[in-house]
């Protein structure tokens, strides 16, 4: 039976803890974006080459969407002709963007040409407006950031607020890297303290999804330092605990989230479930099961229930309590499917395969393997 990184126990529960695993559009560490004349450097040529190579493989539309959502800077660079993108791959990429007239590639090409014409003239706000009118949030955001990076600090609070709104919708690593690079003495003039804190928290969550637990921990800590009374502050505490666990610091993780056990509601449930994961990582399986039982007692629609059930099921199997583990595994799979939490379901199925193979249950392993294959094909989900 897998443990640690290969198991569901690496996935922390519920939306509040920032727990989704990387999707197949992930192309490596967040780039350090910098201004170079009238162009924005988007990171290493290797990232662009990898991006273009993925498009040449004729991926499903869902994978193309994830590639663009996670790497909007590379998508625009490829559409501008960088990286040697072939015509067929260019059409697959362009199809991600809405057309002013549905199904008309010429409409998309005309929109792209208008955006590039405005950028060449240095009219980045106009380029952003063209992109927004076309529904191209990813392109609009990067044009807004082009403008902000060239403005006098604090010059346009409304433009900064609009960029923050777009970044929240796009939620891509390159976007957050550029937005947070603006954090400095001029930020108070551009955004409220809650807005700044939320930006750091959203970036922290994305960092954790991409496997950068240290940046995630620092981001959530900074968010709480900026706005300690924010209504999401308890969520950020959970996120920091999750990041500490990923950093191999379980004792500190437990201390971080301990105050939430008496908070009541979903935060208390999430804290109990995370403590269960911590104890399971430490091979304290009986204690872990007790925490999962407390987290799920009287479950009334908590959105972390599916992942908590999955962790509980895996812990029961690790403890050699196969009947209980299999029953919980079935409940967890049903809940995760109902919640459309495909990443956690894929990891749960991978664990079921590992357990079934270890126990020589070929039929169970084959059924789980088939279901995982369908999930990968239909949803483009991979297991880390």
**Quantity of strands, as a count:** 2
> What's the Cα radius of gyration?
22 Å
Let me know the average pLDDT.
76
- Which word captures the global form? globular
Strand order of the largest sheet: 1-2
Helix content: 55-70%
Helix tally equals 20
What percent strand? under 5%
Structural class call reads mainly alpha
SSE order: EEHHHHHHHHHHHHHHHHHHHH
Low-confidence stretches: 1-43
Cα end-to-end separation: 16 Å
Q: Give a short account of the largest sheet.
A: 2 strands, antiparallel
In short:
The protein has 384 residues and is mainly alpha-helical. The protein contains 20 helices and 2 strands. α9 runs antiparallel to α11 and α15 runs antiparallel to α16 (285-296).
What does this structure look like?
This protein has 20 helices and 2 strands. A two-stranded antiparallel ribbon has the order 1-2. It is globular. 65% of the residues lie in helices and 2% in strands. α1 packs across α3 and α17 (305-318) runs parallel beside α19 (342-358). It has 384 residues and is mostly helical.
């Amino acid at each position: 039976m897998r443990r640690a990184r290969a198991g569901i126990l690496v996935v922390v529960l519920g939306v509040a803890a920032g727990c989704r695993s990387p999707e197949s559009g992930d192309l490596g560490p967040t780039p350090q974006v910098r201004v170079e004349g009238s162009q924005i450097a988007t990171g290493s040529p290797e990232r662009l080459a990898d991006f273009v190579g993925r498009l040449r493989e004729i991926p499903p539309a869902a994978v193309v969407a994830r590639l663009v959502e996670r790497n909007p800077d590379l998508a625009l660079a490829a559409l501008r002709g960088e990286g040697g993108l072939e015509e067929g791959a260019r059409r697959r990429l362009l199809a991600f963007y809405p057309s002013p007239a549905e199904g008309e590639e010429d409409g998309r090409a005309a929109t792209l040409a208008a955006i590039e014409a405005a950028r060449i003239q240095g009219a980045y706000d106009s380029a952003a407006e063209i992109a927004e009118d076309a529904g191209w949030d990813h392109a609009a955001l990067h044009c807004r950031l082009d403008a902000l990076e060239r403005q006098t600090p604090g010059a346009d609070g409304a433009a900064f607020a609009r960029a923050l709104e777009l970044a929240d919708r796009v939620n891509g690593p390159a976007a957050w890297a550029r937005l947070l690079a603006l954090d400095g003495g001029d930020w108070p003039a551009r955004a409220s303290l809650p807005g700044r804190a939320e930006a750091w928290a959203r970036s922290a969550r994305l960092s954790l999804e991409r496997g950068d637990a240290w940046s995630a921990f620092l981001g959530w800590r900074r968010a709480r330092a900026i706005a300690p009374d924010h209504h999401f502050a308890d969520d950020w505490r959970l996120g920091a605990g999750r990041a500490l666990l990923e950093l191999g610091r379980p004792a500190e993780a437990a201390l971080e989230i301990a105050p939430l056990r008496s908070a009541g509601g979903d935060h208390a449930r999430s804290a109990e479930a995370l403590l269960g994961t911590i104890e399971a990582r430490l091979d304290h399986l009986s204690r872990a099961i007790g925490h999962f039982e407390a987290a799920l007692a009287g479950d009334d629609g908590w959105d972390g229930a599916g992942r908590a059930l999955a962790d509980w099921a895996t812990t029961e199997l690790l403890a050699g309590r196969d009947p209980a583990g299999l029953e919980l595994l079935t409940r967890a799979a049903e809940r995760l499917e109902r919640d459309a939490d495909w990443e956690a379901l894929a990891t749960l199925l991978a664990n079921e395969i590992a357990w079934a193979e270890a126990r020589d249950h070929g039929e169970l392993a084959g059924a789980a393997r088939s279901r995982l294959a369908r999930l990968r094909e239909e949803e483009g989900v991979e297991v880390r």
